[in-house]
Every structure is written in structure tokens, then in C-alpha cells.
Hints:
The complex is a heterodimer.
Chain A: H1 2-36, E1 38-39, E2 49-50, H2 54-61, H3 63-94, H4 101-109, H5 116-127, H6 134-141, H7 149-152, H8 154-179, H9 183-191, H10 196-223, H11 228-233, H12 245-255, H13 259-289
Chain B: H1 7-34, H2 39-42, H3 57-66, H4 68-99, H5 105-115, H6 124-134, H7 140-164, H8 168-176, H9 181-210, H10 214-218, H11 226-231, H12 241-261, H13 263-270
Amino acid sequence: MATLHTRAAARLMMAPSVLLLLAWMIIPLSLTIYFSFLRYNLLMPGMEEWAGFTNYSFFLTDPAFFQALFNTLAIVVGVLCITVFGGIALALLLDQPMYGQGIVRILVIAPFLIMPTVAALVWKNMFMNPVNGLFAWVAKAVGLQPYDFLSNSPLLSIIVIVAWQWLPFATLILLTALQSLDEDQKEAAQMDGASAWSRFIYITLPHLSRAITVVILIQTIFLLSVFAEILVTTNGGPGTQSTNITYLVYAQALLQFDVGGASAGGIVAVILANIVAFFLIRMIGKNLEA
Amino acid sequence: MAQTVSKERKIIVTVIAWSIGIALFFPIFWTILTSFKTEAEAIASPPSLFFFDWTTENYAEVQSRSNYFGHFMNSVVISLGSTLLGLLIAIPAAWAMAFSPTPRTKDVLMWMLSTKMLPPVGVLVPMYLIFRSVGLLDTRIGLVLVLTLINLPIIVWMLYTYFKEIPGEILEASRMDGASLMKEIIYVLTPMAVPGIASTLLLNIILAWNEAFWTLNLTASKAAPLTAFIASYSSPEGLFYAKLSAASTMAIAPILILGWFSQKQLVRGLTFGAVK
């Protein structure tokens, strides 16, 4: 009887969270789907009409879409490569005995705590600006032409800025995982004559696999939706060179007021995220089971 | 049987690690430093490191030009409000899942996690239109609601992993003694749950403070928190490096301090308890 009572109470306690998240998932998403089949522009109110798949065919055949798709994937893959490999290397380094480890940890973590608009604007103006930026000064000091990073390599510059923000995240998580590694195991292997490299490959790396999986999974979720960094640095340009899907949909919705087209783009973004999540979870799901 | 490490090796590691640490931190250091320069000095070539006339006029200037304090308070209200509201909704849920688990509890948790995979841009259009029609655009309350919803899965998960660690025997003992559910919660579990709740609170304030999709898209000026206010510096007029630095320094300082205090909880919260 007591259990029945508690079970009912438990249901009641979970209800607000579950219902709110359910509503959050279903209501706006169904509206997006509905809008995506309408010809609907905020500048022409009252002209809404059924449009079938027109919005989708326009969005999917727009050259900007292919550029944005490529850019989205380039940002995800580029930042993941830098942060995962860099994070492993940094975590291994920080796990060594040294003086002032606590302070170094704090210095390394800091970029992750910076709000994206600040991070992007600081890099854009004070470092990458071709006239007054610090990089331009360094280039001139060694006799080189200053390079206009955000005009000439906008996508790469954004990848660098985003990677700077996420490298601390990967490092912090991998370092935490490293510190739970059983030292005896490594010592035993060392006594058996295993080299540092084979100790890393056969003991450390397998131990880290779960943490690496988590880093990839979580970063991918966030990196598919990079937005603020693009908005304040390049506005997606020059042209659409640094536009990702999130930014493309934003521009369609809030700059061109094309509700129908933006909704179709939003649904494409959702489908893309699902495809990525599907493959990701299949590829690395085994690691998360344990 | 700890491994003995040679002193030379330790020194080499120290030098490399410090260099990398300083390099990664440098943009933040440079921002803080520039905030104390005059505008002319901020773009001087060669750049001055410490030997310039230190000034705090940028801070006063940023405030007098743009009601900085108002935006700062928006950030405080939005991040604190959404966190407290989120905790209020999530604590009972995490509680129930940790102490009265059913075979479906894991599925519910995984489903909650999966809602985080929904790209925000997929619901941008309807959220914008709904907010516009009910008058929630550019209001603090609107942003509190949205940020509560987007962070709710993280709050539930994080609380769940903390509550899971509270030994169930204590619960049973208090039940044997005839404590009601209410009493059980107030006298037995709350004291044990407070540290976990505090960590969740900290992490969530950090996430909400730095959130920069919904805050940029759903505010204009009145309710704009610092993320959106700083973004207005992307198309500035005249010299602005020192002012940008001052505005940035004030925007990041509270979170840097909070974050440094909660490194451990950061890992746990951001990995949904998968890495501790």
C-alpha cells in the first residue's frame, strides 16, 4: 500500500518536468512544421496560403544552403579535431607533477567561462583586426603584411575562436577522467617494460574512451548550432562564406521575415541534427552503455 | 611506491604547462588590461603592456552611455530567475526518479537528454511569433521561461546523479520510524541534498549567463542581458577598444569567479554525470 502511495506521489512529482518538456518539444516544433508548408512573410500579413513543398524546394536548391551545410560540418569537424586532440595532449600534460598546477588549471579553464559574444568580439577586434589587432602588429614587427583574417579566411577564423572556447571543456573533462586512472596499473605495466607510448595506447587511451565519447557527443550538439560567434564577427559573410545552417535560418526569419522559408530551414536543421545524432550514437553508443 | 620524478623533468613540465596556460588565458588578460587604457593607448603601436596611464574612465563611460547596470541586472535576473524556477520544477522530478525508480526511469531520463539535441533554430520561428503575439518579446519574464526550459534537462540530470548518491537505507530507516513523506523530505533528505542542489545552481547560473542564442534573438534593448548588449559593439562608431574591454571585463568577471569555484561540478553537470 505504501508503495502504491509513493508511486503515485512519484508520478505527481515528475509531472511538471515531463509535461513542460513535452510541450516544449511538441508545440513549437509542430508549428514550425505547419509554417514550413505555408507561403508566409511577415511583411505581407494576411497573404498566407498553402504552399506545399515549395519552401523546401527553394531552401534545398539554394546555393547558400549547400555552402551552409558544408560550413556547419566544417565547424563541427574542425573544432572537434582541435579540441579532442589538443584536449588529450593538454590533459596528459596537466596530469604530470608540476609547480602551481592549480593555477595553470584555472588559466586553462577560463576561456570556457567567457560568454560567446565577448569571446568573438575580443578576437575579432583586438587580435584579428588587420589594422589595430595584435596579430597585425606582430606581423608588421617581423616584416610581414598584416592578414585580414575575418575577410580572407572567415570560416577558419570562426573555427579558431570556437575551438578556443571549447578546448578548456575537453581538457577539463579528460583531465578529470585521467585522474581517476588507477596508478598501480600503469606502474605494473612500466615494471613489465612497457614503453610510455604503449602504456598510453593500451592503458590510458582505453580508460579515456568514455570521456572522449562524452566530449564528442556534447560538443557536437552545441557546435551544430554555433550562432553568436558568427553574428558578431562576420554576419555570415563575406557572401555566405561563413554562414552555417543556424545562421541561414536566422537570416531568413529575422532579416527577411520569410516565416515559411525559415521554418522549412529549421526543419532541415532538425533532420540534420537527428542524422548526426543517429550516427554518433551508433558509432559511440557502446562506450556509453557501461 | 609513488613514482619518483626527477626535478629537471618537473621543471620542464612546469615551464611548458605554464606557457600554454598563459597563452590560452592571454586574450582574457589582454581584455582586462585594455579596459584600463585610454582609447588612444588601446590601439597604440607598439602595444603597451604595463607602462601606461592606468585609467578607470572607460568603466564610467560605458555606464553613462548605455545604462550598463540595467543590462547587468537583466543578466542577473534572467540567469538567477531561470535557475531557481528550473530547480523548483526539477527537484521533485529528480527526487522521484532517484528514490522511486521504475523500469522506465532510465528511458525518461534519456528522452529528457534527447530534447537537448533539438537545434534551437528548429523552433526559432514559432517561438518568435508566439512571443510577439503575447507580448513576451524583449521581456525578462519571457527569457526566464525559455532559459528554464532549455536548461531543465541538465538540471534534472545533474540533480538525479547527486540524489542517487544519497544512501537509500536512511530513507527506509526514517520510514520505519513512521515519518511521512513531507517529513522525510524536510528533515532527512534536504540536509543531504543541499550540496548537490548548490552545485546545480552554480553550473546553471553559468550556462544561463552565457546563453547567446535566445537572448540575442528574443531581446532588443529593454530586457537585453549582457550577451546581447556586448553584441551591439559589433558595429561600433569611432574608437571603442577600451570601452569594449571595460564592458566585457564586467560581463565576464562574475562568471570567471563562479566558474573557478565550481570546476568539479562543471565537469559533472556538463557531462550529465557521465564523468565525475
